Amino acid sequence: MDCHSDPHLNDELNNLNDVEHLGELDGKEEDDEKLWSDNSERNMSIRQPLLRKRTNVTSQIAVIGANVSPIESLDYEIIENELFKQDWRSRKKSQIYQYIFMKWALALLIGLFTGLIGFFSNIAVENIAGFKLLLTGDLMMDGKYLKAFLVFAGCNIGLAAAAGALCAYIAPAAAGSGIPEVKAYLNGVDAPSILAPSTLFVKIFGSVLGVSAGFVVGKEGPMVHTGACLANLLGQGGSRKYGLTWAWLRYFKNDRDRRDLITCGAAAGVAAAFRAPVGGVLFALEEAASWWRSALLWRTFFTTAAVAIVLRGLVQYCWTGKCGLFGKGGLIMYDVSAAEATYNGYDVLAVIFLGVIGGVLGSFYNYCVDKVLRTYSFINEKGPSFRILLVIIVSSLTTICAFGIPWFASCKPCPTDLDVKCPTIGESGNYKSFQCPPDHYNDLASLFLNTNDDAIRNLFSSTREFQLPSLFIFFVTVFALGIITYGIAVPAGLFIPVILAGSVYGRLVGRLFHSVSALDIGLFSLLGAASFLGGTMRMTVSLCVILLELTNDLLLLPLVMVTLLISKTVADSFNKGVYDQIVKLKGLPFLEAHPEPYMKHLVAGDVVSGPLITFSSIEKVENIMYALKGTRHNGFPVIDEPPFTESPELCGLVLRSHLLVLLKAKYFTKERARTGRGIVKKFSPFDFAKPGTGKGLKLEDITITEEEMGMYVDLHPITNTSPYTVVETMSLAKAQILFRQLALRHMCVVPKSQGRPPIVGILTRHDFMPEHILGLYPHVEAHK
C-alpha cells in the first residue's frame, strides 16, 4: 500500500513542521534508531522507505528541536542527470570558451569594483571624519570648549544613528564584520540575506558612517563582506525578472561558480582594505574558504592584482591634493621600513613575551566579545528602535571618552626636529594642541581625536613619544570600547580595534626592554599588533603577509612569524578564534575541518533518522505534491521498482527545485511508463538552474487539477544518478570528512547487507552538528 495515501500517517508527517520542542509520542523506540527533526531544509530519514507503509511508524516519531532555524545548505554538487549529460555532450567549443572567458572577466570586474569601493570608502571616511575633527579643533583653539564638545558629539551621534538606522531598517545582516557570514557561506551555509544587494548597499554606506562617527571599529571586515556581496551580485547569472539574462551569464546559475566568485570577492576585500593583494589571497585560503583548488588560486590572485592596480593609480592621483583631506593616509599603509630591523637575543625574549601576552589577551578579548554579543542579542530582539538606541548609547560613551580623557593628560613640548607642524592647527595632523599652550601638544588627544588609521600610524612611528600613563589609559579605553562596540547595529570590523590595542601594549613592552633591546620602539608596536591579531583571529600565514605588505618591512619577517605562532598557540589553549565563536553564536551549521573525537565511536547509520520520504522512478503527481506540501526537504531518493527492475534499487536523488520545474511544465503521462528522451527536447538544462537572490519557483505558483493528480511523472531525466553514497557502517568521523571535502548537501546512506531496502537514510550537515549527535547520544563525552 502506498503510504502517501494513509491519512493518519499524513497527519503525523504534517505535524513535523510545527514541532519546536523535544518530544516523544509514546516512548516506544527500536534499538539504535534515533529520530530527528529540525524544521530546516534537511531531509528527514529512517531505516525504511515510506512508500511501503510501516505499521508502527507513527509510534516511532520523536522530535528533537536542537536546530529550528530555516538555514539551508548550498548545492555545490554537480547534478549528473540526463539533461546535464546531454548538455555537456552537445556543448560546442565556442560555448566552452565563453564560459572560461566569463570566469576571468567576472574576476576582473570584481577586482575593479571592489578597488573602487575601497577607495571611495577611504576618501569618504577621511573627509567626513577630517571635517569633524578640524571643526572641533578650531573651536578648541578659540577656547569654546563646550561648543566644541557639542559639535563633536552631535556629529558622532548623528553619523552613528544614520548607520544604525540603515542596518536596523534596511539590512540587519549588514551589522558586524561580515567575515563569519562569508566564511559560513563558503562552507556551504545559505543563510538568508547575507549577500543580498540591500546588504551590499548598507555595508558600504553604513561602514563609512560608522567609522566616521568615531567608533572603535574598522572598515576591513566590512570590505571583505562587501567584496563577497559584489561577487554574488555579479555572479547571479542575470535576472529574468528584469530581463537581464544574457546568454553568456547563464553558465553561472549554480552554487559552485558563485562560490568561486565569492571567494575572489573576499580576497579582493582584504586587498582593498589593506592594499595587500597577496595577503588577500592567503586570507581567502586560510580563513574564508573551506574548499580550494589551484585554478581558484590563480583567479583570486588575478582579482587582487586588479584591486592593487586600481588602488595604486587612484592613491597616486590623490597625492596631488585633489581628494580633499585624503592624502597619503586612509589606506592604512604603515611604512616602517625606515626603522632599522636589527635584533639580538633579548629581542627574541621580548618577542616571546609579546606572543604570550597576545595569546592571553586575545583569548580574553574573544571571551568578552562573546559575552557582550549574547547580551546585545536580547536588546536587538526587541526591534529596530532598540537597536538604534543601543548604537546611540555606545556612540555617546565613545564620544565622552574621546573628548574627556585627553583632559587628564599633561601637555608635552613639541619636538624641534620635525618636518611637520607642531601643534597641528587648521589642518589634519598628528600633533593635537587640544587645551595646551603654544608649542605644546597633547599626546592622548593625538590618539583619541584622530582617525583610527592615523592613530595607528602614530603608534607605529619611531619619532613620536607617548607618556606611559597615556599609553595605559589609551590601551584600557580602546580594549573596552572595541569589545562593547562590536555587536551593535553598524558594520564593524575587528582588525582595527585589535591592531590599535596590540600596538599600544607592544609599545609598552618596547619601553620595558628599551635598555637591552636593539629594536626600534615602532617595530615593537608592530609586533604587539601582530601578537594580538594572532591571539584573537588565530590566523598565521595570511596575517604575517598582510602585516608585511602593510609595513613594507621584510626584515621583520622572522619576528612576526614567531609572534604569531606563539600567540595562536597560547590562545588556542583557552578558546576558539573570534570568527569561529561568532559563527557558532549566530547558529550557523558550520562544518569544522576536523570531526569531533567522539564521532569515531559512531557510524553513519547511528545518526540517520526519520521519516525518509522516497519516490518511485515513475511517481504519481498526487504523491509528489503531497510530499512537497508536507515537508520542506530539498532532496528525495528515487527508487527503481518492479516491473522496471527485478528488485528495488536506488536510482538516485532528485532535488525539490527540479521537481517544481517539472510540475510547473505539467510534463505528465496517464500511464505509468517512461517518457524516453522527449524531455530533452522540451527542457533546457538552464530551465533547472538555481535562481539568484530573487524569488524562485514556489509550490504556491503551481496549480494542479484533480485529473492531473492521478497522472504520473517520469523522474529519470532529472534524477542525479550518481549521488555520493556511504555504507551505514562507515564511521561518522570519516563520513564528515568526506561530506565537507566534497562540499555536499546530501549524502545517501546505503545498507551493508542485501535483502533490505536500497537506502537507509540521508545525511545532511545538520546530522553532523554536535547538538544533534549529543541530543541522540547524551552519554557521549563531547571532548574526548
UniProtKB/TrEMBL annotation:
One of its GO terms (molecular function) is voltage-gated chloride channel activity. SUPFAM superfamilies: CBS-domain pair, Clc chloride channel. The keyword Plastid does not apply. Coiled coil: none annotated. InterPro entries: CBS_dom, CBS_dom_sf, Cl-channel/antiporter, Cl-channel_core, Cl_channel_pln, ClC. It is a multi-pass membrane protein. The chain crosses the membrane at residues 99-125, 145-171, 261-285, 291-311, 348-367, 388-409, 471-500, 512-533, 539-566. It is found in: Membrane. One of its GO terms (cellular component) is plant-type vacuole membrane. Residues 718-781 form the CBS domain. Gene3D superfamilies: CBS-domain, Clc chloride channel. Keywords: CBS domain, Chloride, Chloride channel, Ion channel, Ion transport, Membrane, Repeat, Transmembrane, Transmembrane helix, Transport, Voltage-gated channel. Belongs to the chloride channel (TC 2.A.49) family. This is Chloride channel protein. It comes from Opuntia streptacantha (Prickly pear cactus).
